[in-house]
Amino acid sequence: MYILAFAITLVSSLLITPIVKKFAIKIGAVDKPNQRKVHKNIMPRLGGLAIFLSFIIGVLITNPTDTYHLPIIIGSLIIIVTGFFDDILELSPKLKLLGQLLAAVIVVFGGLEVEFINNPFGDPIEFGILSKPVTIIWILAITNAINLIDGLDGLAAGVSSIALITISFMAILKGDIYAFTLGIILLGSTLGFLFYNFHPAKIFMGDTGALFLGYMIAILSLLGFKNITMVSFIIPIIILGVPISDTLFAIIRRLINKKPISAPDKSHLHHCLIKAGFTHRQTVLLIYAMASLFSIAAVILSLATLWGTILVLFVLFIAIELFVEKFGLINKKYKPILKFVKSLSNQK
Fold first, then answer.
1. Alpha carbon separation from 238 to 124, 135, 243, 317 (Å, rounded)
2. With 0-12 CB in 10 A as exposed, 13-18 as middle and 19+ as buried, what is 50?
3. Domain total for the chain?
4. Which of 51, 166, 215, 228 has the CA that lies 20 to 30 A from 188?
5. pTM of the full predicted structure?
């Protein structure tokens, strides 16, 4: 049943994407090159519409049932409409955020929220009146994190696919059939689109796709990991380590450089790797590898003891910090650990 649903959504996406490409060109939903973007030619976007339509086909076939199902689908429709109009009209950041906020609020007031985290060192941490705001912030953060890494051919689709594989795998281990079903059909839809989106891309997913994938991944991670241990709450953050860390360092970078948080720049992870001499394809594959390592770390965390978890998190932190310093994700002068190591070597 699930393999069939995956196959149908994959084939649906393969068939629908070329149609969406022609539609995007016809209505003028195209991405024009500029100094901030990597591509050199005018490209059709709206590819996310193909992902969404294929996903809906999968939903109709599998007919998954859950308390949160209707709010999730309504929220996804709002996200798609927001992305659709942004890809055509280029909405202001405030209007885009309003659409995302509305989708998040519908899901949260539909009952999906993180109410508490079990604390391994004491009593559970109750969010209380903050449970709804915390959940909304999580959905908005992940939605925009996927959007921010959508800067190279196949990057957002590939990283999202890796996250979906991991979330679906962990959902089935926990016996969460609903989250697994949504994850597997969304994976099929995304992989079908990736066939046309990998370098050299024939179509971009646009905000229609990036916002939809970010929204759905945020929801799926909440379905699988809410109201559980503090360690398990960290797992979806680790699974989404690449987009979350890239977003975090983008915020830090803009604060240090005294620029608006929403201001675009060419210092994201993929930009820095290309500046370092990697080709377009090499950069995407390298980030895929990084996303895969984060996912493997998340699976290890789910099985590790408390001290094992602390060790894994410490190693991840050091690895991320060294990577940031090496490739200048904050700025070229920010290299505290590398400078410290160099000073020790000079003393010898």
1. 21, 17, 10, 11
2. buried
3. 1
4. 228
5. 0.85
